[in-house]
């Protein structure tokens, strides 16, 4: 993975999770932090700190990001294009 | 064809090639030839029915002649003249049920023409004799049939009564006579429509002009989008992490140790999921009651028994309890439960503001009295389907709570007589939500009396199934309830377009409108939407047979805020109309089209609204959407929860 494609999420205890930017964008909060105009420190370094989220929970959250991406892409392939419009 | 293998059927084998010559057994007696007839097999019923009933024997001359001329053709038993003599079956009416008779009738009719056609293929000599016999047999069969028909029509009439819908003319006459007293017969209504000045009549004029120039169907110009294959428009939504976590919790509810820091809205969602999965039990209830809960919301307590209730609620700290929802609590004798468990100390329910006991079918007036006496701060009471309550209950509520009460639901409490509770309603000055659906004694007079008391504050009215209501009620509502936000007038078939006019002129900010089986016309509905359709968020047009393209056009033009639309069973809405609605109502999230066979994939797949969910046609799951539009944390529906003065004093001082 190239550095530009990744984001680092830091938990309360200081653990660092390096994940795909695309996965991180599943969260609206992180997406806003990373893409909004203005100078967030996060935009520059590509790091986001969550001082109130513990490590185990942050790990689960990262797993959820990847699962969500997989869910969305697999839906489109498996269920056909016409159905996905009123699938959910 | 012949069932040669079955032992039960006795085949009279005079001619093996003959397929129709089978004795069918009936469940009664012996036929005239002394052969026992066995119980019939359904397979043989249709073909053989013509043979047994009402045929007379003819002598064997005909039979022999048939043998002589050879058997290349299958012919029925009547042609062969081998029918039975009149036996008991002919005379005993109750033996034959109506199914058999209709089959018989059909087979008689069907055999006649074939005989005529095929008789011509026979050699003349034999056919003459045979056709005479056939004719005689037929004539007698007809006679028998006619006599049968008369007697079975009686039995059919009896059966039909069981299936008839309760739409008898007597009731309509009664309603008409009472409405004439109120002074609004329907013929006059039609003339008056659109005559009185107001936004509705202007809108109606515009709608009529619109249709006069071009046919309304042509006005709807909508083509399905060609980019059906474009994936970017519709991104399927993965469930949120919250949903996934709640689901995991619900599936493993046995392992939950504590719900201590879980906020109330999540507790509610978890409990709802558990109730839906039928996994709600005493352990979870104990978890919910731990500590000092502020809300207890259980939407299905049908599993809760008396002892369990006493056991758990006795030790529960209820001094902070604000919301108590124990729906469908039918097993508990709530009268005793309230007396013993919940009201053991004087201020145990002092902060209780919202209580819901829907479906508590064992709750009687005295139990309610205990509850209301100890919970003086109640602002919302939901007693739907509590069938034992009488007007005493309402009087008790009125006396203790009076003008504090904001929401009252007494739908389907059949013992409550509307006229007797009118004096109590004079005390409900700030009532915001009233549901009296299903109570048949509700009349126009009742509606006008309560509107004079609380017309300024009422925001939601549910009058579904109160069949005695007429346009007068809508007139009262329209002229007095300017702030009305939600109205349910389902199944009120006495309402006409004139009522809709009153409503349109008066209630401009209606957000939720539920119509079902009303007789409003397409133009009137369209005019209503033109005047008052801007603030609509939820519209139900279930089973409105006259609604069609005019309504669709007006919806598309005006209802930008519409979130949920139900046009089930509206057969006049075409594909183009539906496509136009879906594309123009940009906030639309939910569309129900049950029973609309005229809507095809042209519009279902060809629309370009990425967020809408269309339910009811293809095999999409139909219950996922049920909580889609419910707001998350709702206490009272239209105003903030106020603390009563005493509690305030206690807290502060």
UniProtKB/TrEMBL annotation, chain A:
- Keywords linked to the UniProt accession: Nucleus
Compartments (UniProt record): Nucleus
Q: What is its main location?
A: nucleus
Q: In which pathway does it act?
A: Protein modification; protein ubiquitination
Keyword Cell membrane among UniProt keywords: no
Kindly state one GO CC term assigned in the UniProt record. nucleus
Report the domain of life of the source organism.
Eukaryota
Mention one GO biological process in which this protein takes part, according to its record: jasmonic acid mediated signaling pathway
Quote the SUPFAM superfamilies the UniProt record gives.
POZ domain
According to the entry, every stretch annotated as the SKP1 component POZ domain falls at: 6-66
- Family per record: Belongs to the SKP1 family.
The name this protein carries in UniProt is Elongin-C
Q: Which organism is it from?
A: Sesamum angolense
Automatic annotation (TrEMBL), chain B:
| Ranges of compositional bias, category Basic and acidic residues | 149-161
Taxonomic superkingdom: Eukaryota
| InterPro entries according to UniProt | Leu-rich_rpt, Leu-rich_rpt_Cys-con_subtyp, LRR_dom_sf
Bias (Low complexity): 170-184
Alphabetical GO biological process terms: SCF-dependent proteasomal ubiquitin-dependent protein catabolic process
Membrane spanning residue stretches: none
Q: Name one GO cellular component term.
A: SCF ubiquitin ligase complex
Output the Pfam families linked to this UniProt entry.
LRR_6 (PF13516)
Segments of this protein annotated with the region Disordered? 149-199
- Full protein name: F-box/LRR-repeat protein 17
Q: Which organism is it from?
A: Sesamum angolense
